[in-house]
Amino acid sequence: MLTELLGDEVAIALFAGAFSIASAGIAYAAAISSIRREFHLEMRAESLVRRLLRHRRYRYRTFKTIKYHVGGFEDDELRKILVRAGAIRFYDGQNKEIWGLLERARWDVFREAGTGQN
Fold this sequence. Notes:
By secondary structure, the protein is mainly α. The protein has one domain (2-109): Arc Repressor Mutant, subunit A (Orthogonal Bundle). The protein has helices at 2-6, 8-53, 63-69, 75-84, 106-109, and strands at residues 61-62, 87-91, 97-101. The chain has a 3-stranded antiparallel β-sheet. A hairpin with a 5-residue loop joins strand 2 and strand 3.
């Protein structure tokens, strides 16, 4: 019936266009789902880092401890997650990398280990 009204070539072109749009929509939905999963993982990691650093007894955590509890990330990627979570890096007297939330470590930011000038 459609081919009688429009002709074979037009009917084929319409079918091909509809198929193309449908397949593009499926690819778009798959890409959006993948991006959501990826960002969901990072947001969960940031949330976990914030919870670790908000613990009332532990103002600071060593990088080693954070890495133990938030596994699956390379060191530099974990550091980026820490910064996005609002953390700041310090070094203790033994030159160990420690992290704390900036909101809880405001005054410690203004002094540097070993100097009273900074």
